[in-house]
Every structure is written in structure tokens, then in C-alpha cells.
Write a structure and sequence with these properties.
Blueprint (H helix, E strand, L loop, with lengths): L4 E4 L15 H11 L6 E3 L21 H11 L4 E6 L6 H10 L4 E7 L7 H9 L3 E7 L6 H14 L4 E4 L7 H14 L4 E4 L7 H10 L4 E4 L13 H10 L8 H14 L9 H8 L7 H11 L3 H10 L7 H14 L1
């Protein structure tokens, strides 16, 4: 497991946990602390779904993407600045060009795992700009290993320098990781990454299995801070890796100090595996659906379990938050 790249997504995925209300001081303080640790990339956005996602539909962020990128860029001296967005939420002439102007180092272009075609324009633009760019295949549990390889090869053909498989629903078990990550590693000539969610309490384990299967890039967050049940806990991941003899270059004590800063400022409660997190995973739903499902259940006086089940039956994917309200209304009318 040499050349392991650790991508800290606390300041992007973590926004889900606080309804996208991180302050500029939160961004700056955490980035300054983590810059001393030796993590490779800190990924930043004002909204948990990435740049350009702030909206009434998916939730309004407290600050603009430009503001948070700029303040973190100023805070980082040794760590690369990263971004992630979906084509459509982020546009070429707005979010992508703005990110280039603000000095982002690593770009990740995200899409549903069966729709890599829509990333072509953005990836090719970033390649022409001379930037480090990769693909981010969301909801990857929805496709088999052959289809994932097909989509990853498309991204490689557009110029992607790495591809990350995203367990958006937190539903992967170790054998899923071995099968899918291992297949991409075997047949791709660029680094493969893995982004875990913790709905089944498997995030750290699955991240380690991904590395054992040949992955080179792992996403993690402080205290697992992220959507739903959270992500791979960064401090646990690093401690385990060092116990195994890897990433001794990272300062674990400084990392633990940075985590304390985060807990003092914006991580008021560590993510937990709630009933909603389990139902999200069991129904193969985007981990960030938990909060809007609970709100809809309360607003329309229906059972949240029924909403989760119906969304699973309808194959809901990220970006379809309006469908949650539609299902809640249908359940209320049929009662």
C-alpha cells in the first residue's frame, strides 16, 4: 500500500451535517490546522453536494463557493486545494473557470456512475488548463463492475488522471469493495480511489479493503463528519495506517489537535448510525436523504420508514430531493 493519497473532504462532505452552514472562520481555522498534518488534499465547497449546489431545492449555503475557496487557498501552504461538483450544478463558465482562477489544484468531476458521458466537456476543459482532474462516480452500488469499468474508461479517455468510486449510500460490504475496486485497478492505467459512507459501520474497514485491492486514493473526514452516518473517520484511518506501517510522514498528534479544533468549532456531535442511516443504506439511497426525509415525514404526518421504502422502490438518486416531498404527499393521500 505505497503512495496512498488521503483526500480530506471535511470542508465539503461535512457541510451536509450542518445544513451547509459552516462559517468562513470554520473553513479557515480547520484548513490552517490540517495544513500542518501532511494530508494530501483538502476538498472544499460551500455546499455538501459540491460547487454550485446551493439552492432552495438542495439547501442554501451560508457563503459563496468563491468565498470559501479563497479563504482556504490563503490558509494552505503545503496541502493541495481540491474541489468537486456535478456538471449541471457547476457550469463550465461559472464554477469551473472560477475554481481555476481561485487556484484550485485538484478537480473532481462527479456524476451518477452510469453517466460519465456528461463529464467530458468539463474534464477536457481542465486538461487544457493543465490541471489535475479526475472522475467521481457516485451511487456506484447501482452498477456492476463491468459497467463501472466502462464508465471509468470514458473518463480516462476524456483525460481524467484518476477515478474515484463513491459509496454514496453507505451500502458496500468488503466483498463489494474487492470486486469493484479490484476490477478497476486491474484494467485501468490510472489511480483508483474510494469514498466511503458509514451507514453499516464499515467505512474504515471498506477503505482499508480498497487499499488492499489496489486503490491509491482514500477520502476521509474529521470524526467521520459528513452526510447521514458520516464518512471514513480521518483520525482513525491514519492511526490504523500508521499501525500497519504506512503514512508515517503524517503527524498523528497534530491531526488529533486539528480534530479538537473542528470539534470545538463545528462538529458538535459525532455522526451516529441512526435508524434513518440504516434505512438509507438498505434502500440504496443517497446518504444525505436522511434529514429531508425526516422533515417531510413530520410535515405531512407520515411514517419516515414508508418514505425510505418508497424512494428505494422508485430508484431515487442524488439531486432528486423533490421526489421526497412527492412521495410524502402520495403516502398522506393514500392514508
Amino acid at each position: 500500500m505505497k503512495e496512498i493519497i488521503i483526500n480530506d473532504v471535511t470542508l465539503r462532505d461535512g457541510c451536509h451535517a450542518v445544513r451547509h452552514r459552516l462559517t468562513l472562520d470554520d473553513f479557515q481555522s480547520y484548513a490552517e490546522a490540517m495544513d500542518k498534518v501532511g494530508v494530501d488534499v483538502i476538498e472544499v465547497a460551500a455546499h455538501g453536494n459540491g460547487l454550485g449546489a446551493s439552492s432552495i431545492h438542495m439547501g442554501k449555503s451560508l457563503h459563496t463557493d468563491r468565498e470559501v475557496l479563497r479563504i482556504v487557498r490563503q490558509a494552505l501552504k503545503r496541502t493541495k486545494l481540491g474541489m468537486m461538483t456535478f456538471p449541471g450544478l457547476g457550469t463550465l463558465n461559472r464554477e469551473f473557470k472560477m475554481s481555476v482562477d481561485e487556484g484550485v489544484d485538484v478537480f473532481r468531476v462527479c456524476t451518477l456512475c452510469t453517466e460519465a458521458d456528461i463529464t467530458r466537456q468539463c474534464i477536457e476543459f481542465l486538461v487544457r488548463e493543465g490541471k489535475e482532474v479526475g472522475g467521481f462516480l457516485g451511487m456506484s452500488h447501482l452498477a456492476d463492475k463491468e459497467r463501472l469499468l466502462e464508465e471509468a474508461k470514458k473518463m480516462r479517455g476524456y483525460g481524467a488522471q484518476f477515478v474515484v468510486l463513491v459509496d454514496s449510500a453507505g451500502v458496500y460490504l468488503p466483498h463489494d469493495v474487492r470486486k469493484k475496486v479490484g476490477h478497476l485497478v486491474e484494467f485501468m492505467d490510472i489511480p483508483i480511489g474510494f469514498h466511503a459512507h458509514n451507514n453499516f459501520s464499515m467505512a474504515v474497514t471498506n477503505s482499508l479493503v480498497a487499499l488492499e485491492s489496489g486503490a491509491k486514493i482514500i477520502d476521509a473526514t474529521a470524526c467521520g463528519f459528513g452526510a447521514g452516518a458520516g464518512n471514513t473517520a480521518l483520525e482513525v484511518l491514519v492511526a490504523v495506517l500508521q499501525k500497519m506501517g504506512h503514512r508515517k510522514d503524517m503527524d498523528l498528534y497534530t491531526l488529533l489537535d486539528a480534530v479538537k479544533i473542528a470539534k470545538g468549532k463545528f462538529i458538535k456531535n459525532n455522526p451516529i448510525i441512526s435508524e434513518e442511516s440504516l434505512l438509507t443504506a438498505m434502500n440504496g439511497l443517497f446518504s444525505a436523504f436522511s434529514r429531508p426525509v425526516l422533515r417531510a415525514a413530520e410535515e405531512f404526518d407520515v411514517n419516515s420508514r414508508d418514505i425510505f421504502n418508497r424512494l428505494g422502490e422508485r430508484g431515487a438518486i442524488f439531486g432528486e430531493e423533490d421526489l421526497i416531498l412527492e412521495v410524502a404527499v402520495e403516502l398522506k393521500e393514500k392514508r
